[in-house]
Amino acid sequence: MQFGLTFEKLLLIGLIAVLIVGPERLPRMAEGFASVVRRAGEYLRDTRSRVRDEMGPEIDEVDWRKLDPRQYDPRRIIRDALLEEPKPSTPPMPTVIAEPAPRRAPEEFTSSNLPPFDLEAT
What we know:
The chain is mostly helical. It has a domain of 57 residues. It is built from three helices and no strands. The protein starts with 6 loop residues before the first helix and ends in a 39-residue tail after the last helix.
């Protein structure tokens, strides 16, 4: 069984329910519980069919076990990353050092060749 429930535990839960609820109200409670379980099953089936409709037929092709987060062990991921062969890199491009441009003498600034100045920027 799931959630660690065994037959003995379910029997004990049923016995406690009989003692707490009483034999008179127990059938109504069992019917209510059965209807809740039935509605939950219908909700799950409806949700599953809606997901299939929205995702299309390729949803059945997904291997969900590969996406299980419990399978990811950080130590294994790091070990695999450290042990994998390095990928060959492209050869570096040769660097060409350009000669500096010849320096020109500073020109005399006149009103016609002043650099732009923005009063609001300062």
